[in-house]
């Protein structure tokens, strides 16, 4: 405990003495700015305003594109999709059999890395000619 008191007293003894503050603070007028300084300030204000307007325009454009992408136009006029993948089975080596439903009709598709081929319609009609 005595060490702490001794350390505090030692630091207080070494601390520089602050000058006494004047009772009243004197305020001096600023020097008049040069003529070119006001133009530079106005130029900075214009640049920051243009930057803010560009950022707002970019945000509005991004919002519009996001709304357009997620609108019901993609899903069809009534909001129901006309094309759907009903089932899929892998055959190995990135080859698949896919049952696709389009507007109530089902088709068996063969999917390979380079092509998609309709194998047969599944609604009882004859397969397409080759």
Order of helices and strands: HHEEEE
Overall geometry? elongated
| Biggest pleated-sheet summary | 4 strands, antiparallel
- What is the radius of gyration? 39 Å
- The largest beta-sheet arranges its strands as 1-2-3-4
Mean pLDDT: 77
Uncertain segments are: none
User: What is the CA–CA distance across the termini?
Assistant: 101 Å
Number of helices: 2
Helix content: 25-40%
Strand element count: 4
Strand content: 25-35%
Question: Based on helices, strands and strand pairing, what is the structural class?
Answer: alpha+beta
Describe it for me?
The chain has a domain at 83-121. 37% of the residues lie in helices and 25% in strands. The chain has two helices and four strands; from the N terminus they run ααββββ. The protein has a four-stranded antiparallel sheet, with no helix packed on it. It is elongated. The model has no long low-confidence stretch (mean pLDDT 77).
In a nutshell, what does this entry contain?
With 130 residues, the chain is an alpha+beta fold. The chain has 2 helices and 4 strands.
Note the main attributes of this structure.
130 residues; 2 helices; four-stranded antiparallel sheet; alpha+beta
